[in-house]
Specification:
The complex is a heterodimer of chains A (322) and B (573).
Chain A: H1 2-45, H2 50-54, H3 61-70, H4 77-89, H5 103-138, H6 143-157, H7 160-174, H8 190-216, H9 219-226, H10 231-269, H11 274-284, H12 287-315, H13 317-321
Helix pairs in contact in A: 1-4, 1-12, 5-6, 5-8, 5-10, 6-8, 7-8, 7-10, 8-10, 9-10, 10-11, 10-12, 11-12
Chain B: H1 2-25, H2 38-45, H3 56-62, H4 65-69, E1 83-88, H5 104-110, E2 115-117, E3 124-126, E4 129-134, E5 140-145, H6 159-170, H7 177-180, E6 186-193, E7 196-201, H8 208-212, H9 223-229, E8 243-249, E9 253-258, E10 278-283, H10 287-295, E11 301-304, H11 309-315, E12 318-324, E13 330-334, H12 344-352, H13 356-364, E14 368-370, H14 395-404, E15 408-409, E16 415-417, E17 420-421, E18 423-427, H15 433-446, E19 449-453, H16 457-465, E20 471-474, H17 481-487, H18 503-514, H19 518-534, E21 538-551, E22 554-555, E23 571-572
Parallel strand pairs in B: 1-10, 18-19
Antiparallel strand pairs in B: 2-3, 4-5, 5-7, 6-7, 8-9, 9-10, 11-21, 12-21, 13-20, 13-21, 14-21, 15-16, 16-17, 22-23
Helix pairs in contact in B: 12-14, 13-15, 17-18, 18-19
The chains are: A mainly alpha (322), B alpha+beta (573).
Chain lengths: 322, 573
């Protein structure tokens, strides 16, 4: 009988989760449509003629007119939007103004490097932030707590581009521990990951501290201690599992910030990635490249948040009941 | 009721998803460009020009085939080896010369050009072409190509390859930067025979060979290789230059290696294969990181800010190379269609109110050259005589001229005429903010209220081409043909920001461009420069300089004004 009830409970949970996931997937559609509309509007509202920009202001009026015709810029806005959406649905992000290459292929070639950097930065942020946050919470009001919180404040305040410049001068130019000119191997990842992950680490340290402090005084924690468990076991087995739930929520949000922050860090450290790709596109006013990067980034952030939300639903039963 | 509404929304959403999925399953419609518009371009650019002399005799004097072909043996000293790291902010977008813009940087070492410019004398000398003739009307250039040139895949370079390359660049469907900019004015290219290439221009251009000596765009592609490679051409180029392509890590570096078969270098080189074994071209978008790369010795050659040159020189790792840019990079264009700039006295007064020394000190930290005439001294076609007619800082004389023009100072010091204060709009691109600010202050001292107008580049270019500006600090890099771009009436609505329509000036500029006689060209160019200054169509501010740091480990890296980076004879010490 117990087995039957256990199986029924298991089936019930999956049914709830399926509906939860489906609901979140359906909400994805209006979000993506909004993103597509906004990037198209951005392109249309941005001042300047794309044809003149492509010719870098050196084209004759006849060349500009011919190029406008080629790019379909003389057609109505609705037709242009329709063609834009049609191409997007086929995964076509257009051709770069300069270089003429398919934007999608270029983004897919560079994305793994950015993902690698973002993942490394997040890993650093989680390890450093969570462990320092727990340490601060367990040493509340002592000098350790004050030191960690002061460092966290500094980590939040320091701009990434300044930190990157300092890292390069100290570690690359003066100490020569790492090369200045970037690359794509593991040794080129350390400094950029620390630079990019410092702000999220500081934020996570503060969040973990307050979350742990919240849980430390709960009944189940008191019960665990009363049962004779070692403090370390109490923290690791009982406190952290509950304290990390809000931490998990911000990871999804941080992914978006990491993608945006990667522009500064990749540029400063010369890493190939979406950040440098986007910056080169902005410098060149290469609109298909800019649009493609924005759409890709936005879709990725939305999907990342969706994954986090779904996992959050698995972690916290209260969420999937809502 | 609530449950029923939810079901309706759920079904509607499912139907929407399904329809979108079905739509995306259909074959994607490729982007097809159908219209060819070369004809329109040709018609508008045709200009009637007087040509007076046949130049065949002159051309045969310039070219001596025996001196060009023979490669001199390697002199003792330079050893083959080393990896030269070049780092700039130009991002490599493609390695297909038809499509590349930033990619032209590494491509200049992979390819070669029909002619080259001697870095010491500035003269045009043979390179891939051993000789050439120009038709009497200046429209047809016939190049006799060297027959010993080979592409990096071993196939011989022929006139058909060269003609095909140029035709591809001229094809509007390719949207080629080189086609639109470097080959602007070229009508067609054809192979007369295996080693004879004929390029026909839509309008005569005395400075056409200057353009052909430029980096990147003028190089040939192997037709057979390009057709076989298809899209891979953008990732694996093949050229005829002293360096061969090895690899490209997008966003990181392009690696080239020495071409041991290269034996057709121009006359000012040793003619044979390069001494440098490898080149690593790196893109560094951040100027601070670029400087760090130079200071750490990781980059052997990089552009640097003029203001950083002293600091870099102090490291002892690199020597500073500086060039004065060609053309008229910083000229204050005055829209002569707008009152009061239509009055020559007002234009002259503005010219005399500008203190160039202060301008150069504040904007360029003193690293610039004053520019009195219409062109910088390194520009082909520069006329030293014309400089005497340029403006000098004479504020009192400027005020007197304004008084003569009917302007009197108002209670706030701003000049006025008939009760209207003198207000001019200065339209400037964002990177000229410092320059614009100093100009505003200097013109205020004259009594002119300057309203600043800046913003997004595309918008500003649109405003300037439509003539909505009063003043605009602009300029072009290049030979004396920039004067034609800036001041000929045919370029109003395009590059002629002064909106000058002066028939006498048109005649001079078109003679300068259309003649094939060097003496006629020199006189016309000089007269045009004098007229521009006499009529105060533009106030020339200063000549920009560019700085680069060249590692002390490497010798003989040559970087002359308006030209490519010469690595033919460079070597590691």
């Amino acid at each position: 009988m117990t087995g039957i009830w256990a199986n029924a409970g298991h089936l019930l949970m999956w049914d709830v989760m399926t509906k939860f996931v489906l609901r979140r997937l359906l909400l994805l559609i209006p979000t993506l449509l909004g993103i597509i509309l906004m990037t198209f509007a951005m392109f249309k509202l941005t001042p300047g003629d794309p044809a003149e920009i492509m010719l870098q202001g050196k084209g004759t009026p006849q060349q500009v007119a011919a190029l406008r015709e080629q790019l379909g810029l003389n057609q109505s806005v609705l037709v242009q939007f329709g063609r834009y959406v049609w191409r997007l649905m086929h995964g076509d992000l257009g051709l770069s103004f300069f270089g003429g290459f398919p934007v999608r292929d270029a983004i897919l070639a560079r994305f793994p490097s950015t993902l690698q950097l973002a993942a490394a930065a997040m890993a650093f942020a989680l390890v450093a932030g969570v462990s320092l946050g727990v340490l601060a919470a367990t040493a509340r009001h002592k000098w350790v707590d004050n030191l960690i919180m002061t460092l966290a404040l500094g980590g939040l305040a320091i701009p990434q581009y300044w930190l990157a410049a300092v890292f390069i001068i100290v570690f690359a130019v003066v100490l020569k521990w790492v090369p200045v000119l970037g690359g794509s191997g593991p040794k080129y990842l350390i400094l950029p990951a620390i630079c990019l992950g410092l702000s999220p680490a500081a934020s996570l340290a503060r969040l973990t501290r307050s979350s742990v402090l919240d849980v430390l005084h709960n009944d189940f924690t008191r019960t665990a201690r009363a049962k004779g468990l070692a403090e370390r076991a109490v923290i690791l087995r009982h406190v952290l599992r509950n304290a990390l739930i809000p931490v998990f929520t911000v990871i999804g949000l941080w992914f978006g910030a990491l993608l945006g922050g990667s522009v500064f860090v990749e540029t400063a450290f010369g890493r190939p990635g979406l950040g440098t790709f986007a910056l080169a596109a902005i410098n060149n006013r290469d609109y298909p490249q800019i649009q493609g990067t924005v759409i890709f980034g936005a879709v990725f952030v939305v999907l990342a948040n969706l994954v986090v939300d779904v996992l959050y639903g698995f972690l916290d039963p209260r969420i999937r009941q809502e | 009721m609530v449950t029923r509404n939810r079901s309706v929304w759920l079904w509607l959403s499912i139907v929407l998803i399904a329809s979108m999925l079905l739509a995306s399953c259909a074959a994607p419609t490729p982007q097809v460009v159908e219209k060819v518009v070369t004809q329109v371009v040709v018609e508008k650019q045709s200009v009637p020009v007087e040509v007076t002399k046949v130049v065949q005799q002159e051309v045969t004097k310039v070219v001596e085939v025996s001196k060009v072909v023979t490669a001199t043996p390697l002199p003792p000293g330079p050893k083959v080896g080393g990896t030269l790291v070049i780092a700039t902010t130009a991002a490599v977008d493609s390695l297909n010369p038809m499509a590349a813009v930033g990619g032209l940087w590494p491509l200049q070492f992979i390819g070669g050009t029909l002619v080259s410019k001697d870095p010491a004398t500035g003269k045009i000398v043979p390179y891939l072409a051993q000789s050439w003739t120009v038709s009497p009307d200046g429209l047809a250039y016939t190049f006799k190509l060297r027959e010993d040139v080979k592409f990096h895949d071993g196939s011989p370079m022929t006139a058909e390859d060269y003609a095909w390359t140029i035709q591809q660049m001229l094809n509007p469907e390719k949207r080629s930067y080189c086609g639109n900019v470097a080959y602007q004015g070229v009508k067609s290219a054809e192979a007369v025979d295996k080693s004879t290439l004929k390029i026909t221009l839509a309008t005569p251009n005395f400075y056409f060979l200057n353009t052909m000596a430029g980096p990147g765009c003028g190089e040939p592609m192997s037709k057979a290789y390009a057709e076989k490679a298809g899209d891979d051409l953008a990732k694996k180029p093949v050229g005829v230059g002293p360096f061969k392509f090895v690899s490209w890590e997008p966003g990181v570096k392009v690696v080239l290696e020495r071409n041991p078969d290269f034996n057709w270098g121009p006359s000012y080189t040793h003619g044979g294969p390069a001494y440098i074994q490898n080149i690593e071209y790196r893109t560094v978008l951040d100027q601070a990181t670029l400087l760090a790369a130079v200071e750490s010795g990781e980059s052997h050659w990089s552009y640097i800010n003029n203001t950083d040159s002293v600091r870099v020189a102090k490291t002892g790792l690199a020597r500073i190379q500086q060039v004065t840019l060609q053309g008229n990079i910083h000229t204050l264009m005055m829209n002569v269609e707008h009152a009061p700039l239509s009055d020559i006295r007002v234009r002259q007064a503005l010219g005399m109110a500008i203190d160039r020394d202060v301008l150069m000190k504040v904007v360029e930290s003193g690293i610039a050259a004053p520019l009195a005439g219409a062109l910088t001294s390194t520009t082909p076609g520069y006329c030293a005589e014309a400089d005497a007619l340029g403006f000098t800082y004479q504020l009192d004389k400027a005020k007197a001229l304004m008084a003569e023009a009917g302007y009197t100072p108002g209670p706030d010091g701003i000049l006025q005429k008939d009760g209207n204060p003198l207000e001019l709009t200065l339209t400037y691109l964002s990177w000229k903010e410092k320059l614009a600010t100093v100009l505003q202050e200097q013109l205020k001292a004259l009594g002119v209220k300057v309203k600043m107008n800046t913003g997004e580049t595309g918008t500003l270019i649109g405003q300037i081409t439509k003539g909505e500006h009063d003043l605009a600090p602009l300029g072009w890099e290049g030979p004396a043909s920039v004067l034609f771009m800036n001041y000929d009436s045919k370029t109003v609505g395009f590059a002629n920001a002064a909106r000058v329509k002066d028939p006498k000036l048109d005649t001079l500029l078109e003679t300068m461009m259309g003649t094939t006689d060097a003496a006629v060209n020199a006189k016309a160019a000089c007269d045009a420069q004098k007229m521009i200054l006499e009529q105060a169509y533009g106030v020339n501010l200063y000549a920009s300089m560019m700085s680069a740091a060249a590692s002390n480990l490497v010798e003989d890296i040559r970087w002359p004004a308006g030209s490519i980076l010469y690595l033919f004879d460079a070597y590691f010490k």
